[in-house]
Amino acid sequence: MHFPNLNEAKIRSSKKVEVITAKNIKSETHKGEKYFLKTYGCQMNVHDSEEIKAILENLGFTETKVLEESNIVVLNTCAIRENAHDKVFGFLGRVKHLKREKPELIVCVGGCMPQQDSVAKLLKDKYPYVDIVFGTHNINELGTMILNHHDTQEIEVYSIEGNVYEGIKYARDSKISAWVNIMYGCDKFCTYCIVPFTRGRERSREMSDILNEVDQLVKDGYQEITLLGQNVNAYGQDLKLGYDFGTLLEKVALTGIPRIRFVTSHPWNFTDEMINIIAKYDNVMPYIHLPLQSGSSSILRLMGRRYTKEEYLNLFTKIKENIPGVSITTDIIVGFPNETEEDFQDTLEVVKKCQFDGAFTFIYSPREGTPAAKIKDNVSLEVKEERLQRLNKLINEHSLMHNKEYLDKTVKVLITGPSEKGENKVCGYTETMKLVNIEDANEDIGKIINVKITEAKSFSLDGKKEIFINN
Ligand code: 5AD
Ligand code: SF4
Questions:
Q1: At how many degrees (to 10) do helices 341-354 and 309-322 cross?
Q2: Which of 193, 290, 321, 411 has the fewest CB atoms lying closer than 10 Å?
Q3: pLDDT digits (tens, 9 = 90+) for 52-81
Q4: Ligand 2 pocket residue status of 10, Cβ below 6 Å
């Protein structure tokens, strides 16, 4: 048993990052058995689940989408807000029933939640039917943990981790678009955020390792990659090798992969050079997710965001002016402790000025162990909910407005797969990350095609494949 400790996780050691070769255990022990994997949270977790899949498949398991059919259940969890916790514990209720009928079922809980000591303790004390508990730093050990598992509950979660794994095998969900980690962890310590505790200190992958991975994806026919990091702008700073995110982005652009995206960009260290590189290369998509969090400078200070309302607006304007046709989305938290109506008005003002293409909006959720969780709050949930509604109304108006700008225009869409909107439809994304549903283009999955936009809704577009006739 190895328990996590939030206080230890806060310590950023000066130990050099070790590059560890990932284990790639192959065994037929579980041949013929099935796994059920459920992923909660952000893209980082979605990508981690691609590693978990590869580990399980290497042990002989095949995937099932039916919980009752499974021999092993793996929940890859998220800790960012309380409702993420609630969903996992709710699902564990269903798993408990199944385990009663099927005692040989192996139940695993991993990812961000167990990185919190309180969750690991709760799983130990109240969820004895959970067999294996692992964290974000030892995903690569999951195969060994499963092979060594007997009857007792095994909890193995590291608090501080300074390592980077190379040679990880992924069972990627898509053959068209791939995630590529460029760095792990976060050192920003925004006062509301649990991520620096659950994901550890900032560790960048060496540029050559990233480029080798991208080259292989190009060879495998991938059309798009998304560079992943909690804060991609900080890429390279910890390595002290003289290169940064701008340098990396340029080198990735030169691999020739048709589309490059990246998430997430913190407004704090977004350099002019990065803006120029995004503008310069056609295969770097003109789409930036730029979390605002709040439009009030005093709340931003309490959040530890390191920029003011004015600085955000200046950066936003600079990006809009320098990257033609760029779309910008954001994250906003309402109801940070003691947020006044005036503070909230500041947020609305920034939203009105920026007219974001889209936004993820959240009610503040206190996370145990973070500095903000200690602030006494005087704003009722009712007020917070009402602010969220007002904000969402405005955000949705802007999304619809931007989508309408596409009407009757022809845009390039990378077709990623079948659409949820009907049998004969496929879907894909514009360069600016707008979801488009298209009829009669089944044979174009995996291709970038010209699409004429015929209808604009708040959250998606409809379009028709444009067919060129050469006379
Ligand atoms: N409460 C509400 N929202 C949060 N986020 C991060 N931590 C919290 C929290 N404690 C939001 C931020 C971040 C996004 C991924 O989740 O907006 O950008
Ligand atoms: Fe959390 Fe802030 Fe780091 Fe983003 S930059 S992961 S909000 S601490």
A1: 10
A2: 321
A3: 999 999 999 999 999 999 999 999 999 999
A4: no
